[in-house]
Amino acid sequence: MTVRYGSTIALDEVSLEFPSGVTGLLGPNGAGKSTLLSLLSTARRPKSGTVTLLGDEAPGRARIQRLRQRIGVLPQSFGFYPRFTVLEFTEYAAWLRKVPAAQRRERAFDALRLVQMEKHADRKMGALSGGMLRRVGIAQAMVNEPALVLLDEPTVGLDPAQRVGFRTLIQELGARSAVVMSTHLAEDVAHVCDRVAVLIEGSVRFTGTVAELCALPDGGAPGKDGKDGKEIDGGAVEAGYLHLAGTEAVAT
Ligand SMILES: Nc1ncnc2c1ncn2[C@@H]1O[C@H](COP(=O)(O)OP(=O)(O)OP(=O)(O)O)[C@@H](O)[C@H]1O
After folding, report:
1. Which end of the chain is less congested by CB atoms within 10 angstroms, N or C?
2. What per-residue confidence (pLDDT) applies to 252?
3. CB under 6 Å to ligand 1: residues?
4. Cβ contacts of residue 26 below 8 Å, gap of 6+?
């Protein structure tokens, strides 16, 4: 598909598939990652091409409403009423996704427990730290037990311990859903993702396993599961990425 904003081509004949598990989206600023996530979330439609979501090809308005109930989204920044409590906000997200009334509170608590925010359920949203907000953001994305989870830079603003906890959480999510996660952090890709897609200037420059990305600088095939090949860590992911992107560094 292709997406333009005026004369800017944000996505240029991009063709990608996101199977179950965690797929990382890597790319420099302005590469088109958020635009791609907005297409997958049904917030935007492509100028040309089609998006097939959860087996539903080019859904129309009515089908999109139903699909949204099966999708969870954490945008880069999300709006909220500062006077809502954490629980009210999470229940509100459940209501938006049409979780039945009788299940909303339980689902909201389950989601808050996953991000270890249940103790803060009665705090006002406006009084949360940046990292806590991010955690509530993930909780609201999961409150409808989605089959497709879209996370735009989910670990931004988290302290190192929270980031480690999040990686485990995202891996668990990937075991039951298709998770697409945009990030600038090579360490996140190394620790969390099964597969990676690299976008540069609106074009797909690489898709494959993380082991395959790490093997790019050597021009060699990766070892099985990366085990008897190159060690998969943030440095190896960054080297693979730099091999494609030149000097545009990602953070480790
Ligand atoms: N609403 C908009 N109007 C005009 N141009 C836009 C708009 N949104 C994005 N763009 C442009 O589209 C291109 C892709 O932007 P996008 O936000 O998808 O990139 P990104 O990879 O998510 O970047 P970042 O890593 O900085 O978040 C950029 O050139 C950007 O300037």
Report:
1. C
2. 46
3. 5, 8, 10, 27, 29-35
4. 33, 182, 183, 184, 186, 189, 196, 197, 198, 199, 241, 250
Q: Which helix (H) or strand (E) holds 165?
A: helix 160-176
Q: Which of 4, 16, 34 to mutate to test the pocket of ligand 1 (most atoms within 8 A of CB)?
A: 34
Which ranges of the chain have pLDDT less than 70?
219-230, 247-252
Structure tokens at 193: 């993702």
Query: How remote is the CA of residue 29 from the centroid of ligand 1, in Å?
Result: 8
Strand 3-5 to 8-11 pairing: antiparallel
Q: Is the Cβ–Cβ distance between 245 and 178 less than 8 Å?
A: no
12: three-class secondary structure by DSSP: coil
**Nearest C-alpha to atom 28 of ligand 1 is from which residue?**
30
0.95 cut: is pTM over it?
A: no
* Domain 1-54+147-252: CATH class, spelled out: alpha beta
ipTM over 0.90: yes
| Residue 221 confidence (pLDDT) | 59
Question: Measured from the CA of 199, which atom of ligand 1 is nearest?
Answer: 21
The pLDDT, as a whole number, for residue 64 is 87
Domain boundaries, the chain: 1-54+147-252, 77-146
Q: Which of 2, 4, 7, 8 to mutate to test the pocket of ligand 1 (most atoms within 8 A of CB)?
A: 8
